[in-house]
Amino acid sequence: MKSNPYINEESLQKFSSIIANRIHHGFTIIEKNDTLPFAVLSKGRKEVDHGFNFLICCMTLGVWSVGWIYLTYVSSKEKNIVIAIDEDGNTFEEKCYSE
């Protein structure tokens, strides 16, 4: 197996800690490759309790509607990210854009 010259112990440790942190915050690993090293993680949709939010919206005379719309928009999408090590040995994280 060929070893990549840009991967060192510090880079792999940072890579692993970022993945562990994301898993702790609810992401799951979809794909992981240790030879290149990269990982694709996903976080599923979160259900919004619209009945409760409607009640809060009525109690705040519609002020909560802005927060409710934002919460619905952000929570209704599945989040995918890729974490990898680039050619310089730096760990980076980017959003994956799907259809």
Structure description:
With 99 residues, the protein is α+β, with helices and mostly antiparallel strands. It is 38% helix and 24% strand. The protein is built from 3 helices and 4 strands. It has helices at 9-24, 50-59, 64-75; strands at 28-33, 38-43, 79-85, 91-95. A hairpin with a 5-residue loop joins strand 3 and strand 4. The relative contact order is 0.21. The mean pLDDT is 88.
Annotation keywords:
3 helices; alpha+beta; four-stranded antiparallel sheet; 99 residues
> How much helicity do the residues have?
25-40%
Overall pLDDT score? 88
Which structural class do the helices and strands define? alpha+beta
| Uncertain ranges | none
Q: Give the termini separation.
A: 35 Å
> What is the tally of beta strands?
4
Q: Please provide the ordered H/E string of secondary-structure elements.
A: HEEHHEE
Strand % is: 15-25%
Gist of the model:
Helix content is 38%, strand content 24%. It is of the alpha+beta class and 99 residues long.
Sequence-ordered SSE layout with sheet pairings:
Blueprint: H1 9-24, E1 28-33, E2 38-43, H2 50-59, H3 64-75, E3 79-85, E4 91-95
Antiparallel strand pairs: 1-2, 2-3, 3-4
Transmembrane segments: 51-71
Keywords: Membrane, Transmembrane, Transmembrane helix
